[in-house]
Amino acid sequence: MKAIRLAQDRGYAEHGWLKSFHSFSFAEYYDPRFMGFGPLRVINDDWIAPGMGFGTHPHQNMEIITYVLDGAIAHKDSMGNGSTILPGNVQYMSAGTGVRHSEFNPDTKQATRLLQIWIQPDVTGVAPRYDEKTFSRESKDGKLVLVASPDGQDGSIAIRQNARLLIGMFDGAQSQQLPLQADRLTYVHLARGTLEVNGVSMKEGDALMLSEENLLEISAGQQAEVLVFDLPRLG
After folding, report:
1. Side-chain half-sphere of 98: how many Cα atoms within 13 Å?
2. How far apart are CA 19 and CA 170, in angstroms?
3. Tell me: the pLDDT tens digits for 37-50?
4. How many Cα atoms within 13 Å fall on the side-chain side of residue 125?
5. The pTM is what?
6. Of 142, 153, 144, residue with least CA distance to 188
């Protein structure tokens, strides 16, 4: 079973310094049909103006992944972490019992574009934790690379959920097949470019939701950057 979620059907918020496209219900955007997919709760495609950002704010009991597409984001949190996240970096923050952090675009001329991803954890009330790893463009060229998993497999970031996130870049004749478990869910988000996934043509911002499928087939990419979430069913 498969269903496509078109980019133009996402929620949208414009705050002057920030424009954000919401794949799922978030803040003032509410659609009961799109409250999440399995434990995947948020994918916000954020565009942050030069020198602007999110002031210090709290999170609790949520797995938060930040993936920068363009520009940079400067992060500081109540755990004592502080760094500048660049394209290719995957930043992870498990909010647990509570954490406060800020995120700012340190460039005064260039906008920052990033994906803010929230995944519901499979355990709550635990100590917050932080991780950050770099996955080069070369490592993702023509293939899906595992960047997050429940056990830190293959050098990925270990998260508190039985979920995996893979990221790849595809162009021209590059293609890949990925075996799927039919009893799990697969969510494909195309960050940019165009791509064909399981026979469906996708454009930037589109998403494909799969269930009861045994194989993921990626082909016909044109400067495509894609995120693939392997997710458990809830309930």
Report:
1. 3
2. 27
3. 999 999 999 999 99
4. 0
5. 0.98
6. 144
